[in-house]
């Protein structure tokens, strides 16, 4: 999340912060550190087989990330009901079936609803699907006038015409550049997207999203080891898969979790939480996503926890300016997705998200994929810009800034065709 492109803050104000003024963009100033071995247990035992990985090492890594980074979900909460609000079998210039499906959840006398916008290839039965959140409402990803405008809270954005935290018609189609819907449909895939603010508004307030449905009596904030917003958004993606298993037009065994920036962190954690995701894509996810924390390059744990205290669980604050104390790093998070296909992508101008740290995470995670006889990022030498490495674990760095482009989607589709089976 490069400051110039972050939608909730102003670079000129944040650059006055002592933490940000110390931001390192010099590779020679990256501290030396030991890369935690994903195949060495916390007790020092080497993992050599898939069985030991799945029985011993994977669970202990998962529980560390769950209790100390993203936060655990207090209890199970399934879909109470779903409603197809609208559908059209001749959408998107006749190429797609469009559905708008509302999922409802009830607990503690409260109800939460969010809407999935689906575009599915018109002439395909049981379509595979890319699932990802959007930042400003389902109506922003398309010019389609039939797509509903969410009434959920939104961050103000003058260029999108968003004032008083309210989404309006002015912002329709403002993010079509990030969603290559036609390319996705032409390749035989569907696209499912959700406005993330309907699951949990992106602000430091745990009273108005999904959290409050799972509070104990007199609780108004998650416990130190309980879920922050990233885990809440990940939960929403998992529940969407529950719905896909009921939809005859979707191949629920081929759902690919996609996310950009903070929602790339989200797609990674969703892919770790639920093995039903057939593949996972992290686009410019940076700190707390694919980038290695111990490098202290670009955005750091102290900065992200200070600016966005609601994203992670409170226990994660223990490692602010104390990354060396972390017994794990983000390559081990990526390893938890094995043996399922994983794509990590970076942008050349997005130094805030530490492209090299993202690349190295994919490289160091690869040794776990080797247990399953899968190939990944086999070298520590970064590829040239716009020269992707495609394996079960894939990586590219493209020209440009913190964004999602047609180039990204073209590579994700090519990778999915080859590895998501």
UniProtKB/TrEMBL annotation:
Q: What keywords sit in the KW lines?
A: Hydrolase, Serine esterase, Signal
Q: Which GO MF terms are attached to this record?
A: carboxylic ester hydrolase activity
Which residues belong to any copy of the 4-O-methyl-glucuronoyl methylesterase-like domain? 225-370
The reply to whether Transferase figures as a keyword in the UniProt entry is no
Give a yes or no for keyword Hydrolase in this entry.
Answer: yes
Q: What start and end residues bound the annotated signal peptide?
A: 1-21
Membrane-spanning ranges: none
What's the domain of life for this entry? Bacteria
Task: Please state what the protein is called.
Answer: 4-O-methyl-glucuronoyl methylesterase-like domain-containing protein
Q: Which organism is it from?
A: Arenibacter echinorum
């Amino acid at each position: 999340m490069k400051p110039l492109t972050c939608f909730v803050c102003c670079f000129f104000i944040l650059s006055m912060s002592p933490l940000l003024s110390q931001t390192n963009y010099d590779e020679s100033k990256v501290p030396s550190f030991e890369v935690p071995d994903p195949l060495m247990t916390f007790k020092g035992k080497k993992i050599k087989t898939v069985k030991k990985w799945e029985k011993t090492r994977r669970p202990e890594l998962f529980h560390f990330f769950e209790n100390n980074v993203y936060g655990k979900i207090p209890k199970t909460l399934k879909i109470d009901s779903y409603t197809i609000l609208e559908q059209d079998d001749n959408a998107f210039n006749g190429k797609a079936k469009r559905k708008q499906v509302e999922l409802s959840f009830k607990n503690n006398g409260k109800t939460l609803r969010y809407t999935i916008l689906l575009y599915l290839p018109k002439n395909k039965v049981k379509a595979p699907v890319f699932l990802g959140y959007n930042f400003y409402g389902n109506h922003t990803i398309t010019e389609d006038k039939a797509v509903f405008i969410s009434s959920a809270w939104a961050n103000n954005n003058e260029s999108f015409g968003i004032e008083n935290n309210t989404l309006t018609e002015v912002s329709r189609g403002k993010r079509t550049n990030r969603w290559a819907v036609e390319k996705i449909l032409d390749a035989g895939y569907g696209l499912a997207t959700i406005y993330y603010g309907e699951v949990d508004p992106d602000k430091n307030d745990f009273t108005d999203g999904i959290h409050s449905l799972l509070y104990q009596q007199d609780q108004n904030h998650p416990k130190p080891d309980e879920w922050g917003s990233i885990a809440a958004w990940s939960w929403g993606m998992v529940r969407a898969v529950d719905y896909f298993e009921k939809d005859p037009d979707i191949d629920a065994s081929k759902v690919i979790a996609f996310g950009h920036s903070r929602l790339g962190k989200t797609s990674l954690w969703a892919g770790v939480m639920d093995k039903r995701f057939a593949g996972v894509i992290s686009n410019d996810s940076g700190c707390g996503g694919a980038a290695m924390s111990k490098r202290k390059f670009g955005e750091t744990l102290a900065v992200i926890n200070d600016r966005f205290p609601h994203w992670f669980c409170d226990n994660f604050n223990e490692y602010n300016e104390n990354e060396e104390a972390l017994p794990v790093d983000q390559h081990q998070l990526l390893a938890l997705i094995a043996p399922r296909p994983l794509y990590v992508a970076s942008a050349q101008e997005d130094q805030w998200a530490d492209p090299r740290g993202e690349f190295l995470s994919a490289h160091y995670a690869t040794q776990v994929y080797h247990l399953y006889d899968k190939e990944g990022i086999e070298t520590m030498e970064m590829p040239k810009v716009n020269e992707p490495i495609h394996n079960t674990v894939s990586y590219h760095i493209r020209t440009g800034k913190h964004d999602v482009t047609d180039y990204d989607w073209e590579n994700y589709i090519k990778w999915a065709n080859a590895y998501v089976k």
